[in-house]
Amino acid sequence: MSSTTKEVHSVIKRILADERAYRTSLNYAVGYCRAGLTMSGHELKVQTLYILNNITHWRHADAKLVRKVLKEYKEEMKAVDHGDCPLCGEKVLDEFRDALSKREYEISGMCQSCQDDVFGRNESE
Q1: pLDDT for the residue numbered 122
Q2: Which of 16, 45, 79, 94 has a CA that sits 20 to 30 A from residue 29's CA?
Q3: Among 49, 106, 98, 97, which Cα is nearest to 73's?
Q4: What is the pTM of this model?
Q5: CA-CA distance, 95 to 66, in Å (whole number)?
Q6: DSSP secondary structure string, the chain?
């Protein structure tokens, strides 16, 4: 299973909801989480590393799920760093239909074919 930006933002919000742990186990993680809510793509991948390193002592009912989602996102983005589409696993060719498709690749790492499957292809094309 892969984790999406939306799922990562959701688990970050779970971390931030545990205000009682701010002064103890979540100390530095709080700032990283707040910043992570404004990020996506590779920038969020790097932020997940900071968050994961700063929630190691966090004990919460959702902690295991939170760590799982963050680690999955990190691994998915690792594939993107190697030029592989996170959905189909194929090498991504630098052939995009338009600037919007290129921008989506920069955010998600998806190849043009997978973007077409996920978002649909404009019938006029």
Answers
A1: 62
A2: 79
A3: 49
A4: 0.72
A5: 35
A6: ----HHHHHHHHHHHHH-GGGTTTTTTTHHHHHHHHTT--HHHHHHHHHHHHHT-TT---TTHHHHHHHHHHHHHHHHHHHTTB-TTT-PBPPS--SSHHHHHHHHHH---HHHHHHHH---TT-
pLDDT digits (tens, 9 = 90+) for 14-52: 999 999 999 999 999 999 999 999 998 888 989 999 999
Class of residue 19 by CB neighbours under 10 A (exposed 0-12, middle 13-18, buried 19+): exposed
Q: Are 70 and 48 in contact (CB under 8 A)?
A: yes
Place of tokens 């984790």: 3
Residues 18, 26 contacting (CB under 8 angstroms): yes
Predicted confidence (pLDDT) per residue in 69-114, tens digit: 999 998 888 878 888 888 888 999 888 999 999 988 887 788 999 9
